[in-house]
Fold these 2 entries.
Entry 1:
Amino acid sequence: MSDKSRTGTVERVSPVGTLLLSRVLITWAELLVVGFVGAALGGAASGPPQLIVYLATILGSVAVVMYNVDRLVAARIRGGT
């Protein structure tokens, strides 16, 4: 094929793959922050407060994952319609 036949075609990069990769990296960074903050606060506490910090850290981690999954699903639905 000649170069002239290719000039009319536009190659688009899929935004879904780019969005997925960026959202995975953001989720990973947010989970690191939540984990380190929970570890620091849990290390400073002892006894029952340490258990509460541990449970709050778990709850924060689940919230981060659920929020980011929701953002991905919402973007996928918007892109599909």
Entry 2:
Amino acid sequence: MEETTEATPLPDDVVREILLRVSAVDVATLFRCAVTCKQWRAVVADLSFLRQHWPEKAPHPSSVLGFFDSPYGNQWPLFISPEKVLGARRRSLGSFLVAAAPPDILNRAVPLAARGGLLVVRLPAWRLAGDSLRLAVCDILKGTCDVLPPLQCRVSQCGCAILTREDCCSLDGQQAQTPSTGYSAFFKVLAMIVGTNDQDCNLYAFSSSQATWSEPRKCFDQVWQRDTFGLRIILRPSWATVCRGVAYWLGSYSTDHRSSPRCFTFGVNVKTGETSSTELLIPANQLSLPSFGRMLSVADGNLSLLILQKEGLQLHTWTRGDDGRTWLRTRAIELKPPKQVWDPVHVSILSGEKSGALFMSDAYGFVYKTDPEKGAMQDVTEEMFHARLSFWAVPIEMDWPALFMSRLAV
């Protein structure tokens, strides 16, 4: 009878060195290694191992940028990324969730906003009766889905901002209240609802700690409506920006039919809920130049405005000064599209929450990774598995150490 010899497990420090070399080459392979056996899972799930590969002080090396989109005909929103860390395929929103209750509630849902690993989606209108809106908040890292109570209102357009626990306690150092209402995490949702016309705009707020929607707050008073023409808030999903405890939307208006449009920011204080409208003090000859698109973003902790102008195909960055009113042009670069023809007439500007990565999507859904310093543009449509982004794609960044810890904790 032949004798059998059991294999001797490698010491943890040896396994650690092997897996560190794997992670330096391919993060997706590291994840597959981690689910091979309990020993490897314990090594990878150890926070010291994750931080050794992704140091906290490094400039966001642990974040991966992708997009949640709802391409026509798909049952679930899809996660699409030029970085193949989750494998060479598109993933449905459901693949990130442990369970969605009730089942199939997210079929044909539309992504609206994302921040800190949280994603807000709008549930399909055919599930509701009358004038009402239903939203859900998905925690991509924890794999949970919280369906919010219906919001009774007439909806023509809807734009949202999602606020995390970190947003709500960073100003005064106090901890946000842990929800006792059945929700899986603390969050706040700000919903900007446009009714019958652009000036019929109301703000609603929802907190998981209270589990109720606030009363509507009109965004424009009568003075704004009387003295302006074409007043509106731009409700593109990627244009709700959180900076220093305030959620900002970009708006535009004109003083009459002939004048060039002016821009303003509409801000909502995360802590107090107070609102403010502030005109962007940028020279009129700069804002009046023909442009493809405009977007608020955060650069080095300051609120910034990105403007893609037709003349010379330039991307201008304006940064708000310390007084909160004046704006300075801090960067102007000439974009260098790839050799193949691209259509810049309708351009979506998509930026990373922390990494500063910048993507542009044209009218045909082709996606270009853009260097904000040099202006070089790389077509990454093929890298996104032949996927083209719709006009409503929502960018989201996920922190790899947090994802590993939530999926591999032992």
